[in-house]
TrEMBL record:
Gene (name only): sucD
Binding residues annotated for CoA, in chain numbering: 17-20, 43, 96-98
Residues annotated as binding substrate: 161
Phylogenetic classification of the source organism: Bacteria, Bacillati, Actinomycetota, Actinomycetes, Streptosporangiales
Stored HAMAP family: Succ_CoA_alpha
Protein name: Succinate--CoA ligase [ADP-forming] subunit alpha
Complexes and interactors: Heterotetramer of two alpha and two beta subunits.
Length: 291
């Protein structure tokens, strides 16, 4: 069992014929993911990496039965690509592209809501989603962990990989990289609830970072709705005030959005928070060993 991405998921790649699209299509195929085609209006009717290229997402879905799209198009064209996926009502759209203008992200997120939330958006500026041993949609390395019963949701790509690797002996049901931009589709709360509802996830790792109040809102949600054990890590304890750090959303103002404030909010509701990624892995290891 996994959340949102299973061994039966059929993936198309918007922007498959570009450099990044090509590289990661190969990696997804090598991992065993069912990539069934790509979308590029200028190259419709051709093949690429042995897969058919379609003119639109709608056509690709009709011809292949695809239910997941991974977006590897340049930032200037991402909004239109995501809106096309929403119009086609594909169930899951994973937006890998970095540098998408916040206004564009706001627009396609609102468009998804307006269209009835038939398309779940993950990202933008994210590593995607992986259900080890089942499927992989995005850029998460497929060989760093095993299938297991931990769920992971993270703002950071590299910290996603580190926790997956450090806990590889227990393994993961699904790892979701939600991205660190100020406006994203799927949130910590969405993933927490999905893992809560998944009978094959026993415990949850949540990785946050400085900036915004997503982690504080997630803490309040955990208190009310999540009964499974949660451990967390918040990146950015040494970040200087008022400076954007890495992700566009990672900026603090005064005490708002600091790592310490997020840590305190999470610990207040019983979430164990590690001071480092490795300590976070150790806390989860203790939980899993006690089960």
């Amino acid at each position: 069992m996994a959340i949102w991405l299973t061994e039966n998921s059929k993936i198309i790649v918007q922007g498959m014929t570009g450099g990044e699209g090509t590289k990661h299509t190969r990696r997804m195929l090598a991992s065993g993911a069912k990539v069934v085609g790509g979308v590029n209006a200028r190259k419709a009717g051709t093949t690429h990496e042995g897969l058919p290229v379609f003119g639109t997402v709608k056509e690709a879905m009709e011809k292949t039965g695809a239910d997941v799209s991974v977006v590897f198009v340049p930032p200037a064209f991402t909004k239109d690509a995501v809106k096309e996926a929403i119009d086609a009502e594909i169930p899951l759209c994973v937006v890998i592209t970095e540098g998408v203008p916040v206004h564009d992200s706001t627009e396609f997120w609102a468009y998804a809501v307006e269209k009835g939330n038939k398309t779940r958006i993950i990202g933008p500026n994210c590593p995607g989603i992986a259900s080890p041993g089942a499927s992989n949609a995005g850029i998460i390395p497929a060989d760093i962990t095993t299938a297991g019963r931990i769920g992971l949701v993270s703002k950071s790509g590299t910290l996603t990989y580190q926790l997956m690797y450090e806990l590889r002996d227990f393994g993961f049901s699904t790892a979701v990289g939600i991205g660190g931009d100020p406006v994203i589709g799927t949130t910590h709360i969405d993933a927490l609830q999905a893992f809560q509802d998944d009978p094959d996830t026993d415990a949850i790792v949540m990785i946050g970072e400085i900036g915004g109040d997503a982690e504080e809102r997630a803490a309040a949600y955990v208190e009310q709705h999540i009964t499974k054990p949660v451990v967390a890590y918040v990146a950015g304890f040494t970040a200087p005030e008022g400076k954007t750090m890495g992700h566009a959303g990672a900026i603090v103002s005064g005490s708002a959005g600091t790592a310490q404030a997020k840590k305190e909010a999470l610990e207040k509701v019983g979430v164990r928070v590690g001071k480092t990624p490795s300590e976070t892995a150790r806390l989860m290891r203790e939980i899993m060993q006690a089960r």
